[in-house]
Amino acid sequence: MSTRILVVYYSSTGNTAALAESLAAGARETGADVRVRTVRETAPEQAVAQNPRWQAWIDAGPHHALAELADLEWADGLAIGSPTRFGGPAAQLKSFLDSTGGLWAKGKLADKVATSFTTASTAHGGLESTLLAINNVFYHWGAIVVPLGYADPHLMESGNPYGGSFVSRKSAAPDDLALGALRVQGRRLATITTHVATGLKQAE
Q: pTM higher than 0.85 for the full model?
């Protein structure tokens, strides 16, 4: 059976969604069965309307099916992404993660392989702290955290060993360098997940 990879993201303008798609593409290159899911928009309509790019992204949707707890149970490996909000993940994503307590209590999230990714509008806007905050959830789940690292020469240029990221200066869309790093991250996640899943089955 193929390794099952779940990519869950929140995106307000499409940049984080683009990273999610690139990560998913990398995972598929390994033969993995991949699902891409988003989370519910919870911001007030008036807040959205004040940002034309945010409003345009919502108007262009829906972009992916909404993530459900059953998706987390289904997956062997997980990639979770969010834009950076004051040095942490967006509330929309955090709300979904906060709903996983029942699965956590039953041990359903333990031993899953997990990685994180993010976007920000400034170079020092909290990219790394956002990734570490998402990873904190993985620790509590008992998941096996896979950083991006410098496992590929390409990553010496993209420059974030914690996880894939992109700085959207002047509302720029993710560039080839960032998207390439996410593809590497997807391949790395799927490959390591396959090794872990195989080892756990042999140990049973």
A: yes
* DSSP H or E segment with residue 85: strand 77-85
Determine the average pLDDT of the residues in 166-184: 90
Radius of gyration of the chain (CA): 16
C-alpha to C-alpha distance for 15 and 120, rounded to whole angstroms: 9
Q: Are 73 and 112 in contact (CB under 8 A)?
A: no
CA dist 37 and 65 (Å) reads 5
183, two tokens: 């593809």
Q: In this predicted model, what pLDDT tens digit does every residue of 39-78 receive, in sequence order? A: 999 999 999 999 999 999 999 988 999 999 999 999 999 9
Separation CA 131–CA 188 (nearest Å): 17
Phi, psi of 10 (to 5 degrees): -120, 140
End-to-end CA distance of the chain: 17
- Residues 110-136 have pLDDT tens digits of 999 999 999 998 888 899 999 999 999
Contact 57, 14 (CB under 8 A): yes
Running DSSP on this structure, what letter comes out for residue 33?
Answer: E
